[in-house]
Amino acid sequence: xxxxxxxxxxxxxxxxxxxxxxxxxxxxxxxxxxxxxxxxxxxxxxxxxxxxxxxxxxxxxxxxxxxxxxxxxxxxxxxxxxxxxxxxxxxxxxxxx
Length: 97
Prior knowledge:
Radius of gyration: 15 Å
Order of helices and strands: EEEHEEEHE
Number of helices: 2
Number of strands: 7
Distance between the termini: 7 Å
């Protein structure tokens, strides 16, 4: 199978790696990845003590907020999110064409 590749401005071959998931147990919800992603791929979600997502953010059961991949189809494969993540929460893969 062929792999999706591109070229840098300098003509070097570049293979994008697209975000697959964020490890919700490692994520501290700092928002650095959200700030560097210009393609609306990520969003912050509230979690309770059991590690389950909570829909009502006004709920008293919220333990913390973590980043999730909400719009994976918008990812361009630049890996900026994982490069800035202080907890190494991200998993990326190449796209097989």
